[in-house]
Specification:
Elements: H1 2-31, E1 41-46, E2 49-51, E3 54-57, E4 61-67, E5 75-77, E6 92-97, E7 101-107, E8 114-119
Parallel strand pairs: 1-4, 3-8
Antiparallel strand pairs: 1-2, 4-6, 5-7, 7-8
């Protein structure tokens, strides 16, 4: 009976130690402001507009532009910080913003299409 209790306690302690180690391996990533995979902000490209036209995100956020138009668009930073390839319908482009600031962008095929990302 004592051996069974000892094994149960030892097994439970080992399980708790493994769970704690796994949690500690994940926490530094979350503490640094990195977003979990699959999360982030999205800008929809449709009908020759960016929606929203101004998006505010925290530092280290990935922003994904999704082309819902029937024609291609190229997402281009005004400062040359990022530039997508020509995005056909339902194609996406992502960029991670690592510094605070305001980042205006436009479609280099249709320069009247403008937007901005505000990183705080």
């Amino acid at each position: 009976m004592i051996i069974k209790k000892t094994l149960l306690i030892t097994g439970s302690s080992l399980l708790l130690a493994l769970a704690t180690a796994a949690l500690l391996a994940v926490l530094p990533t979350l503490a640094n402001g990195e977003e979990a995979k699959g999360s982030g902000a999205e800008v929809k490209v449709d009908n020759f507009t960016f929606s929203p036209d101004t998006l505010t995100v925290p530092v280290n956020s990935a922003v994904t532009w999704v082309n819902k138009d029937d024609i291609p668009h190229v997402i281009t930073s005004n400062e040359g910080l990022f530039k997508s390839k020509a995005l056909d319908t339902d194609q996406e482009y992502s960029y991670t913003f690592t510094k605070a600031g305001t980042y205006p962008y436009y479609c280099s095929i249709h320069p009247k299409m403008v937007g901005k990302i505000v990183v705080q």
